[in-house]
Amino acid sequence: MPNKVQRDTIWVYLAGQPIFVLTDPAGNEYVMQSYAQIVVPTLMYKDLPNLENELNLPPGWQYSTRTLTQELQMNSNGLATVVNDDFANSYQQLNP
Predict the structure, then answer these.
(1) What is the largest CA-CA distance in the chain?
(2) Using the 8-state DSSP alphabet, how is residue 52 labeled?
(3) Residue 87 contacts by C-beta under 8 Å, 6 or more apart in sequence?
(4) Rounded-to-integer distance, Cα 55 and Cα 21, Å
(5) What is the pLDDT of residues 41-69, one digit of tens each?
(6) Are 55 and 30 in contact (CB under 8 A)?
């Protein structure tokens, strides 16, 4: 369930690096900000590209990985929409 969070942050993702994305049934994309070892203590960064095989997402939600061709900056501008998956990983909505 997406939540609104008041904050002023700029997340920078570098070109050539992978990003991990949740997509909701309406096509809104959420980019992973952090992964957690709360639910799965052994989860490591190297496991993230294959999480689609492990997550139990609600109907219509999808997990994907893609490599950026250019730098991505996500500015919250005072209000961010964030969501967590069932592993407690955190994502911010891209271009809300």
Answers:
(1) 34
(2) G
(3) 35, 36, 38, 39, 40, 43, 51, 54, 55
(4) 12
(5) 999 999 999 999 899 999 999 999 999 99
(6) no
Q: What is the pLDDT of residue 3?
A: 87
Q: What residue type is assigned to position 18 of the chain?
A: P
Q: Which of 22, 2, 19 is nearest to 11 (CA)?
A: 19
Q: Give me the pLDDT at residue 96, please.
A: 61
Query: What's the domain count of the chain?
Result: 1
What pLDDT sits at residue 1? 83
The proportion of the chain whose per-residue pLDDT surpasses 90, expressed as a percent, equals 89
pLDDT of residue 95: 80
Whose structure tokens read 């997406």? Answer: 2
Q: Which domain holds residue 87?
A: 3-93
Q: Where are the alpha helices (DSSP H) in the chain?
A: none
- With CA atoms as reference, report the closest residue to 43 among 60, 20, 71: 20
